[in-house]
Write a structure and sequence with these properties.
Two copies of one chain form a homodimer. With 344 residues, chain A is an alpha/beta fold. Chain A folds into three domains: 44 residues, Orthogonal Bundle (434 Repressor (Amino-terminal Domain)), CATH 1.10.260; 132 residues, Response regulator (Rossmann fold, 3-Layer(aba) Sandwich); 139 residues, Rossmann fold (3-Layer(aba) Sandwich). In chain A, 45% of the residues lie in helices and 15% in strands. Chain A has 13 helices and twelve strands. In chain A, the strands form three sheets. In chain A, strands 2-1-3-4-5-11 form a six-stranded parallel sheet, sandwiched between helices. The radius of gyration of chain A is 27 Å and the shape is elongated. The relative contact order of chain A is 0.12. Chains A and B meet through helix 4, helix 5, strand 2, helix 6 and helix 11 of A and helix 4, helix 5, strand 2, helix 6 and helix 11 of B. The structure holds a DNA duplex (16 and 16 nucleotides).
Chain lengths: 344, 344
DNA sequence: ATGAAAGCGCTAACAT
DNA sequence: ATGTTAGCGCTTTCAT
């Protein structure tokens, strides 16, 4: 059936649209009978207000755009889930896009989002992105932008990130506290700030315990994959004085390393303790269960949304935008893979 | 800076909004000079058309709503990814909501989506949902709805699902073809059609190979968790004539079972072959790697979107809506856990 | 080549 | 208690 409008109801009742509009919205100055008839016909005609007309009139769209590099990733699913939780509670909706880690596509989807009329944008930059002119352009259109996880200081915007440094520091400290002294690290590539921070946390923890930094105990990934974990673990086992423990930049690398260790006849954690980063669901299912550093994805989504909604409100009130920079703690999850067996 | 409108440009140039509108859209009957100046001022004023005004005028919103029970789930991430791929290529956007497997919330979010003015809806029903009156109501508002994965025959709508029966049948056949004859099954609860189909596929495969159905080889989960896998595997091991292989309704159950088997001193696949369902990423990472049945999530997202967009178009053309019912094949991924060792 | 005017569907200030 | 009117920002037909 064709969608009914206020006018349809008004005409069929011989009143004006204004009356109908008021009747439907419980305005005080409306006769009980009129209200009744209007409500009844509206019901009968399956009337529903045209959302676009309402929004145009009220200048509020109530939609925020979200751009992540890759939806099919547990961390981003968590973030998105947190975002939806917060914004829906305030009657907002979420339009979701992905950049597929492509700078080109990121520009394209942010443009599309602007053209769709979102009230604000939550963005996790792609790994390729170094220039943020496209986001600055959005801000020029009075569109608030909040960055999370992968951020860029070139943009004057609120940011919400995990404390990768602290997470890494805690992970390594957990190893050192148990008496391990030769802690290896498989680090990520130099570009994303996140993995660089993890490396920094690793070095800082060693330094805090007065241990030397040994370059031969560090491997640098390019793609951050399972197979790189395999490669570096083999390398470590072949050293004249091999490490006794390993902090890997991600869980997939940690799992790759464990695979290689096992093939080489090394037991985990007896011959080498291992701790990863990200706390994927697999960590709990593997044997041994894998220790890892959990990122507060859901919380990042919530906090970033709160900041964005605040800025949207400030914009509406014609107040200056206040930016914030949140750094949320990561939590180490200690499981079997990193627990030193009792000393006999 | 305040957002510029057509009128702003028109006034600053001493022309009408109509002229500006035409100049910006490359209409033929517009002087080159006017076009130049308009374009220049538009640029200077950072003009961008107001999306809501355009959409209201053109009666096209170009947004589809998506409702899934839980975003943080690899299968749904895949589906969403497929949806976004297809609809963005046609200039549409995706508004995402989750029902958290709650019937109440499903009603709430579908209503919100209607109120937001989406052009159509892609829905995976919550496990709680038995009545689909809320979706029928949407259809009454001329809102096309396509169901995927968890569907309900009570609604006259297009559907896209995995062929759970065939996937299960193939999984069990794969075991039987290798000479296993005592195939156990840990099934899901009776309600969601999907897991019932898997059970049906299991029985059909046994029947096709002339094997008896043995109730003692079947366990029924309530929550479909890792720990239920543990419980049933222990039960199977304790049987006087234990099964030689197992088809589990999901990967988490399969992994639970493997854990229990290992604890009980049983080797996988030597003492019991195991195959799961869903093909989570973990399956490749575990040792032994776990065989599983892959659901075509991405493809489901694509196909469901295509059906929905077709219906949206048909509605616009005032043609009758054509419904389709697609059943996409699942693919068995054979890995170590289900491969019978060579017979010596 | 450009302007004037109507209208998408709704709201709200101002009448009566 | 209800009607009138003006607009939200844009597109498009019909004039000129």
């Amino acid at each position: 059936m064709k969608r009914a409008t206020l006018r349809d109801i008004a005409q069929s009742l011989g009143v004006t649209v204004a009356t109908v509009s008021r009747a439907l919205k419980n305005y005080p100055d409306i006769s009980a009978t009129t209200k009744q008839t209007v409500l009844a016909t509206a019901e009968r005609m399956h009337y529903a207000p045209h959302p676009l007309a309402v929004k145009l009139r009220q200048k509020s769209y109530r939609v925020v755009g979200v751009v992540v590099p890759d939806i099919v990733h547990p961390f981003f699913s968590d973030v998105i889930s947190g975002i939806i939780e917060v914004v829906e509670a305030l009657g907002y909706h979420v339009i979701l896009s992905q950049s597929n880690e492509s700078y080109e596509k990121e520009i394209r989807v942010t443009q599309m989002l602007l053209a769709t009329g979102v009230d604000g944008l939550l963005v996790c930059l792609s790994n390729e992105t170094v220039d943020v002119g496209h986001l600055r352009a959005l801000q020029d259109y009075d569109l608030p932008v909040v960055l999370f996880d992968k951020i860029n200081s070139g943009l004057d915007a609120s940011t919400v990130v995990t404390n990768d440094f602290q997470g890494a520091y805690d992970a390594v400290t957990h190893l050192l506290d148990q008496g391990y002294t030769r802690v290896a690290h498989i680090k990520g590539p130099p570009h994303p700030e996140n993995t660089r921070q993890r490396f920094a946390g690793y070095r800082a923890a060693l330094a805090a315990y007065g241990l030397p930094f040994r370059p031969e105990y560090v491997g640098e990934c390019h793609a951050v994959t399972h197979s790189e974990g395999v490669t570096f673990a083999r390398q470590f086992m072949a050293l004249p004085e091999p490490p006794d423990s390993l902090f890997a930049v991600t869980d997939s690398v940690a799992i790759g390393a464990i695979t290689a260790l096992r093939e080489g006849g090394w037991r985990v954690p007896q011959d080498m303790a291992v701790i990863g980063f990200s706390d994927w669901a697999v960590c709990q299912l593997m044997e041994p269960s894998i220790s890892s550093v959990a990122q507060p994805g859901y919380e990042i989504g919530r906090r970033a949304s709160e900041l964005l909604l605040r800025e949207i409100q400030q914009l509406r009130d014609e107040q200056p935008l206040e930016h914030d920079h949140l750094v949320l703690d990561a939590t180490i999850k200690i499981r079997q893979s990193s627990q030193r067996p009792a000393i006999r």
